[in-house]
Design goal:
3-stranded antiparallel β-sheet; Nucleoside Triphosphate Pyrophosphohydrolase; globular; 5-stranded mixed β-sheet; alpha/beta
Length: 148
C-alpha cells in the first residue's frame, strides 16, 4: 500500500450518555451510523481536526476538551489505502444538524447498534474498555455486526 492517510475521529457523548452519530447519506456506507471525523489537514493538530470535523458534519460546536484515548488502523487493499485514525473523546450538547455527510443525531448504543459501522462500534468499544488500539482490514471494514 502506498497511500497512508491520517484521520481524526471523535466519540462524542452528551449528559444523557448518548453518542453523537451520523447516518451517512452518500457513498459505500450509505445508511450506516458512524462517529464524526475525517482527514487531518497538514499543520493541524488531531484535536483541531476533530473539532472542525464534528462541527462540519453535525453542526455541534464542542466546547469541552478533546481527550485522546486511542487509535486504529484501517487497511483497504481494494483502494490501496492505509488510514491511521486518532481517536478522541469529548462531551457536548446541542441539536445536531443535517449536513452533506448525513443526518446527525444523539443515539443510545442500543438504538444505534444494528446500523452502526464496525469502525464506530470498535471505537466506542475501546473507549468504554480503556483500550487503545484496533485494526480493521478488507471486508472487516464493512461489517456492521461487531459485538461489544
Amino acid at each position: 500500500m502506498d497511500k497512508i492517510k491520517v484521520n481524526s475521529n471523535a466519540v462524542i457523548t452528551n449528559s444523557e450518555g448518548k453518542f453523537l452519530l451520523i447516518k451517512l447519506k452518500v457513498g459505500h456506507f450509505k445508511g450506516g451510523l458512524c462517529i464524526p471525523g475525517g482527514g487531518v489537514i497538514p499543520g493541524e493538530l488531531s484535536h483541531e481536526a476533530a473539532a472542525r470535523e464534528v462541527l462540519e458534519e453535525t453542526g455541534i460546536k464542542v466546547e469541552s476538551t478533546f481527550i485522546p484515548f486511542g487509535f486504529c488502523e484501517l487497511m483497504n487493499d481494494q483502494i490501496n489505502q492505509h488510514k491511521i485514525v486518532m481517536l478522541l473523546h469529548a462531551n457536548a450538547e446541542g441539536i445536531p444538524q443535517e449536513t452533506e455527510e448525513g443526518e446527525a443525531g444523539w443515539y443510545s448504543y442500543e438504538e444505534a447498534e444494528g446500523n452502526m459501522l464496525a469502525f464506530a462500534k470498535e471505537a466506542i468499544r475501546i473507549w468504554r474498555k480503556n483500550q487503545v488500539h484496533f485494526k480493521l482490514s478488507g471486508s472487516e471494514v464493512d461489517l456492521r455486526r461487531v459485538e461489544l
